[in-house]
Amino acid sequence: MLERYVKRILEARVYDVAIETPLSAAPQLSARLDNEILIKREDLQPIHSFKLRGAYNKIARLDPEQRSRGVIAASAGNHAQGVALAAARLDIKAHIVMGRNTPPIKVNAVRALGAHVILHGDTYDDAAKHAAELVAKHGYTQVPPYDDVDTIAGQGTVGMELLRQHPGRLDAIFVPVGGGGLIAGIAAYVKYLRPEVAVIGVEPDGSHCLAAAKAAGRRVTLPYDKLDLFADGVSVAQIGKEPFRIAKRYVDDVVIVNTDEICAAVKDIYEDTRSLAEPAGALAVAGMKAWVERHGVTGRTLIAIHSGANLNFDRMRHISERADLGEKREAILAVTIPERPGSFRRFCRAIGKRSVTEFNYRYADPTEAHVFLGLSLSPARDREGFVARLTEEGYPVVDMTDNEMAKLHVRHLVGGRAPGEHQELIFRFEFPERPGALMNFLTVLGERWNISLFHYRNHGAAWGRVLVGFQAPKSDRPALVKSLNATGYRFWEETDNPACAQFLA
Fold first, then answer.
1. Is residue 159 domain-shared with residue 237, that is, in the same domain?
2. Beta strands in 122-243 (DSSP E)
3. Residue 51 in contact with residue 104, Cβ under 8 Å?
4. Same domain, yes or no, for 211 and 82?
5. How far is CA 24 from CA 43, 162, 166, 285, in A?
6. CB atoms within 10 A of CB 501
7. Which of 102, 123, 142 is the last residue of a domain?
8. Does residue 487 share a domain with residue 375?
9. Does 214 lie in the same domain as 132?
10. Catalytic sites, residue numbers
11. Domain coverage including residue 198
């Protein structure tokens, strides 16, 4: 199997349009991790992503009849741009199906490359289904993003380049995983020529389809309502069939990272290369850092694939807010202090000279008040130790550093409370970022429940994060949940989240 793929990779037609990207040193990251860290700069491709390689190799191999009918792809991201540019260079008409909530920057980028953009549905599944219908109707050739031997071979040229660029000692290569095309291509080439080099996949918590498949010994489909959407470039529910055939034998390990760790990796890459990676583009660096910490290794030579830099400008704010949490340089705490003269000053004295990143004070009742505290910690300082010390001094503390609702909403919302004695149910939603999404939500819900809280912040993504409170007793929960399901939006109940009790209840 590997020999056949190596031959395909060596014959891959990618350099008519793609470039051989550099393998850059990362001196600051190397010093911090005490390993030699190298970054493969796929962000420097003409579309700022490796996806161009596979798309071009696939399209370049079509016969004249297939070319005359045109090509189609379902994608809202880098694959769409890869198909559009490849088709333009080969003078082939390209049709790209994207969700209606795709950020305008991505739609405009694909149109600028000459492709015909079709907006349909809100999810990848909606777009893929419509693309299949158009294939059946018009005879277009589908260009798969990962589950195709020519696509995999095109992506595998990344592995061919890095072995040629770094012929010396090499211990591990870290590769972001979505549908698996990139890691399959790299693993096939690297394991054939240098089987001693570890190939390690990295996935976000919530989109870990390769890790789940390796654990089960077969491909599994992750539930859509739990699928991670932050690193949208790798948000895939099921690993591709052909990529898994390779990965199950030749991928040595899979590391799973969270949103904060990805944001910290975006910052790491920027500090060493001055490149702004998209979340999926920074995934490999995040996984490499987690792997080094987990195994305590030093003195190794490690390569991470920087797979893309198509970052919406508006997402930078959210990423910068979360980067220090991912680096364990910030703690988010909810602290209860007495509501009496001088208590505020005494609490600040307990904090000491530590750098405060956020301080929100909320009167709770005549006897106590709640403080939402962001605290900058040096890497050597123990967060748990500081929490324990505050507790010993008589301050009730709830550590919210890993509380997603607190980080997404409450830190921007402290102060609101349900009026009087009304009971309240709190839910967190993901709305599609398109006109009419809110009105659809309100129309489906009707007028049975009064909305007592609503918080939304734009994160520059295809899905908006929304927190909603409803004036309703807990006995109404089944009926309310039924109505919320009818909206078609993903949601999580947060009524019992400690952040609600501290700041919103």
1. yes
2. 141-142, 172-176, 198-204
3. no
4. no
5. 12, 11, 11, 13
6. 13
7. 142
8. no
9. no
10. 51, 307
11. 2-49+149-325
Pairing, β 490-493 against β 424-432: antiparallel
Q: What does the alpha-carbon distance between residue 176 and residue 204 come to, in Å, rounded to a whole number?
A: 9
Q: What is the CATH number of the domain that holds 110?
A: 3.40.50.1100
Q: What is the pTM of this model?
A: 0.80
The two structure tokens encoding residue 136: 């059946």
In what side-by-side order are the strands of the sheet with 355-365? 355-365, 368-376, 330-338, 397-399
Domain boundary among 325, 349, 378: 325
79: tokens are 């694959």
Give, for all 505 residues of the chain, the pLDDT tens digit: 899 999 999 999 999 999 999 999 999 999 999 999 999 999 999 999 999 999 999 999 999 999 999 999 998 789 999 999 999 999 999 999 988 877 777 888 899 999 999 999 877 778 888 999 999 999 999 999 999 999 999 999 999 999 999 999 999 999 999 999 999 999 999 999 999 999 999 999 989 999 999 999 999 999 877 788 888 889 888 999 999 999 999 999 999 999 999 999 999 999 999 999 999 999 999 999 999 999 999 999 999 999 999 887 777 877 887 776 667 777 888 888 887 767 777 787 788 777 777 777 666 667 777 788 888 776 545 777 888 888 888 888 988 888 888 877 777 765 555 555 568 898 988 888 776 777 777 777 777 877 777 777 666 667 777 888 888 888 889 999 998 988 888 898 998 888 877 777 6
Tokens of 257: 């990272």
Cα-only R_g, the chain: 25
* Number of residues written out for the chain: 505
If asked whether residues 102 and 227 sit together in one domain, one would say no
> How many domains does the chain contain in total?
4
Task: Tell whether 224 and 157 lie within a shared domain.
Answer: yes
Question: Are 282 and 388 in the same domain?
Answer: no
Write the DSSP symbol of residue 354. Answer: P
We report the CATH number of the domain holding residue 441 as 3.40.1020.10
137 & 18 share domain: no
List the structure tokens of 217: 């010994």
Would you say 157 and 14 are in contact if contact means Cβ atoms under 8 Å apart?
yes
Sequential DSSP letters for 391-407: HHTT--EEE-TT-HHHH
